[in-house]
Structure formats: structure tokens, C-alpha cells
Amino acid sequence: MIKLENLHKNFGKLEVLKGISTNIQDGEVVAIIGPSGSGKSTLLRCINLLEVPTDGRIMINGQDITDKGTNIMKVRQDVGMVFQHFHLFPHKTVLQNLTYAPMKVKGVSKSEAEKTGLELLEKVGLSAKAYEYPNRLSGGQKQRVAIARALAMNPDVMLFDEPTSALDPEMVKEVLDVMKNLAHTGMTMAIVTHEMGFAREVADRVLFLDGGVLVEDSSPKEFFSKPKSERARDFLQKML
Ligand code: ADP
Ligand code: MG
Asked: Is residue 15 predicted with pLDDT exceeding 80?
């Protein structure tokens, strides 16, 4: 479903991604792991064109999104993204956060968007908060709204950039549970995370990035029990 071919990204002279190649299959859940500054966020941001790759190709469903003729808005409709700091619209209610883009970008009717929005809120356990404003929610609730909002666009794939890193410890589980349920529905997911237990349990595959290089691309079982590289062994020792 997603094919990365020799993906490079530079910021000026800084080479952040140094030729990443891998595939993500339809329905696959991939955990992206690595030290701070290794290029994990940049990689995700390239997949929905928040960053323009310097070189290489990204194919989504057979379409080269790095091609000049690509409709960036269409790519972003099909690729949902969830950020560490939620990025909810503060002046809209929870339900309005969910209905805004489907109505504005996809031309969905208000009643249809609200129906879908309320269904999604039920799925993430937040039906009772539909008419609240984001500042009345806990961090875990905000992140569940952000996930529901991304799903409201009916994306083909969901990208998560450290979705639980900004949360108090007691709220991490409620967000990971929503993500786990989503994984079980067959959603294609790429998740940058430091939650090793979650990666081990939920991911089909682990990508280990270090210094802009894809150092390991393996099953969680292999990665966590016998990492091939010294760098991954070092990293895991610090994490676990
Ligand atoms: P990670 O998510 O693994 O911590 P990032 O992808 O955020 O890593 O960053 C990788 C490197 O790229 C870092 O050195 C960071 O400072 C740099 N970088 C990221 N975004 C930009 C940017 N917009 N401009 C310049 N440098 C950037
Ligand atoms: Mg990052």
C-alpha cells in the first residue's frame, strides 16, 4: 500500500533521511522506533507531504505522491495523521472538530458528518463529550478526539507521531487501547512510539531508524529478542 524507494530528505546541508526503502502492506501495523533526532517524524511527515522529499519516491496505492502533478490535498485526505500535541481546533466543539474537514474538504452534508462524528466518538468512548470544547478535556481525551477526527476523513492509512508522549502516565493506556482496537479493524498504521510493550504486542513489524538510516526492518519478535545491530541493542538497553 505504501512503498518508500530510496527516500532522502535534507534540511539545507543536514541529511536527515539517507535513503529509506521499505513497504507497508494493506492492513499492516508498523512501529517506527529510534533515538531522538533519528528522522522518525520527518519520515512520517514525508508520507503525507508535510515535508517534500529531497529525493526518492513514495508510492501510495500505486500513485507516486512525490510526482509534481500530485494533488497534495487529496493525499492528505487519504493519509490521516495524529500528532504528539493533538492540534485540535480550540474554538470548535469536539463534534465540530470531527465534522469540519469532511464538510469543508469532502463536501459531506452536516447531518451526515455529524452522524459519522457521533459514531466515531462512541468508538473512542467520548460520546458524552461531543458538545464540550477541547480545553475541558484531559490529554488522553484530547488525543482520542484527535484520532476520531483523523478517522472522520475515512483515510486509507493512519500515521501516529508519538501519540502518547505528551500524556500523563495514567492516560497512556486509554489512547493505546483505542489504537489497538483500530489495528484490529484492519487499518493500515505507521506509529512512531517509545511504548515498547505496545510495539511488541500490536505491531506486525518494527522499523528501527538511527541517524536517518533504516537499520532494522523486522518482526517485533526478532527485533526485541535478538536485534541484529549493535545500535538497536544499545537503544533497547536504554529503553527497557
Ligand atoms: P525524530 O522524530 O526521530 O526525533 P526528526 O525527524 O524530528 O527526528 O528530526 C531529525 C533531524 O532533522 C533533527 O536533527 C532535526 O533537528 C532536523 N529537523 C527536523 N525538522 C527540521 C526542519 N524543519 N528544519 C531543519 N531541521 C529539521
Ligand atoms: Mg519526532
From this structure: yes
pTM for the model stands at 0.96
CA proximity to 19, closest of 209, 225, 239, 227: 209
Label residue 236 exposed, middle or buried (CB < 10 Å: 0-12, 13-18, 19+): middle
Does ligand 1 come within 6 angstroms of the Cβ of 165? no
What superfamily in CATH does domain 2-87+157-239 come from? Answer: P-loop containing nucleotide triphosphate hydrolases (3.40.50.300)
Residue nearest to atom 1 of ligand 1 (CA): 37
Q: Tell me which amino acid residue 155 is.
A: P
Report the alpha-carbon distance of residue 14 to residue 24 in Å, rounded.
Answer: 27
* Residues that place a CB less than 5 A from ion ligand 2: 41
Pick the ligand that lies closest to the CA of residue 165: 2
